[in-house]
Design a protein that fits this description.
five-stranded mixed sheet, Creatine Amidinohydrolase, Chain A, domain 1, 29% helix, alpha+beta, single chain, six-stranded mixed sheet, binds zinc ion, Creatine Amidinohydrolase
Length: 356
């Protein structure tokens, strides 16, 4: 905050709040806001009826609960005092920001992520362990999928998605973040929403799923994995495509060493896919950071010259999507470490052939 000339940081809904104070605000019309002055103690302004859910941490913040007829915007402005530059949480509702701009007329506003993202994106050993536990949980689900233990043929994508969601919770997550199930040509849409399409023999099915596992400190860490299965032997053409994808994913993992720019990790896999003639069908970045949020810094994308440091956690998930035909993606979470990328997911990478 000092380096950026920020006088106060204002954190509301989103992942910054639980990350820094262990309390996750409900996304409500009643304002919850952690007021963090550059010099001084932090105050959590919280609706009175939510206050009982706050685990007190006297060494981190004091609680200022507000009653139904009080004006929380005025309370925040009072605590902040005269401010030149305020950093506001990126996910704060714009309505609150507009009201704060009026209540704090001397303040300019910037994104809090300029301060919080560099802190959050580098994971310590404790956080890496949490990511590993969450990764192992979805690995077990992936293994069942690959073993044919999740029935596919004759069910709709939505039914399989519901089953994966159930398993995500059964495996210890507190929240399902997504469970994409895309069969056949639907897999050509990277974020296809599982629907009423019935899965048939001979198709490939892309499953991308993950959740958030909350620890006793109130902070949750995310899992995220993608695996594809083929129901019956794949065509030679699809098997070839998948081989290219698997080699590209491995190339990006191999490239993800400390000091390597994020964009180089992207290029390592992308060049293989392009050389095989599929370049135009890899339509998204290679990956995203992951932690208390499913998508956060650092992004593994052309143009991001950020060099990897020990503790950066991110996905490596190239995909090849042929419109109206099929698609495939292969995704693991890895953490940059001195010995190379440390995988949080170790489920088999090959195209599993199931007869379910
Ligand atoms: Zn995605
Ligand atoms: Zn994913
Ligand atoms: Zn992902």
């Amino acid at each position: 905050m000092t380096a950026d000339g920020i006088d106060v940081m204002l954190l509301s809904v989103g992942a910054d709040l639980p990350y820094f104070c262990g309390y996750e605000a409900m996304p409500l019309e009643r304002l919850t806001m952690l007021v963090v002055p550059r010099d001084g103690e932090a105050t959590l302004v919280v609706p009175g009826l939510e206050a009982p859910r706050v685990a007190e941490r006297a060494n981190v913040f004091t609680i200022r609960s507000w009653g139904e007829t009080e004006n929380p915007i005025g309370i925040v402005a009072d605590i902040a005092g005269p401010v030149g530059l305020a950093a506001i949480g990126d996910h704060t509702w714009s309505g609150f920001l507009v009201d704060l701009m009026t209540a704090m007329p001397s303040a300019n506003f910037c994104r809090a992520s300029t301060v919080t993202s560099p802190i959050r994106s580098v994971k310590d050993a404790h956080e890496i362990e949490r990511l590993r536990v969450a990764g192992a949980a979805v690995d077990r689900i992936a293994a069942r999928l690959q073993a044919g233990e999740v029935p596919l043929v004759g069910r709709t994508e939505a039914e399989v998605s519901a089953e994966l969601s159930r398993q995500i919770l059964d495996e210890g997550h507190h929240r399902v973040n997504f469970a994409i199930v895309a069969a056949g040509a639907n897999a050509a849409s990277p974020h296809h929403e599982a629907g009423g399409r019935v899965i048939r023999q001979g198709e490939s099915v892309l499953c991308d799923f993950g959740g958030t596992m909350v620890g006793s400190d109130g902070v949750g860490y995310c899992s995220d994995i993608t695996r594809c299965v083929s129901i019956g032997e794949p065509t030679g053409e699809f098997a070839d495509l998948y081989e290219v994808l698997m080699a590209a994913q491995q190339a990006s993992v191999d490239a993800a060493t400390i000091g390597t720019p994020c964009e180089e990790v992207d290029r390592a896999g992308r060049s293989l896919i392009a050389d095989a003639g599929y370049g135009e069908y890899f339509v998204h970045r290679t990956g995203h950071g992951i932690g208390v949020e499913a998508h956060e810094d650092p992004y593994i994308v052309e143009g991001n010259s950020t060099a990897l440091v020990e503790g950066h956690a991110f996905s490596i998930e190239p995909g090849i999507y042929i419109p109206d035909r099929w698609g495939a993606r292969l995704e693991d979470i890895v953490v940059a470490a001195s010995g190379g990328a440390d995988p949080m997911n170790v489920a088999a990478h090959g195209l599993a052939v199931v007869d379910a």
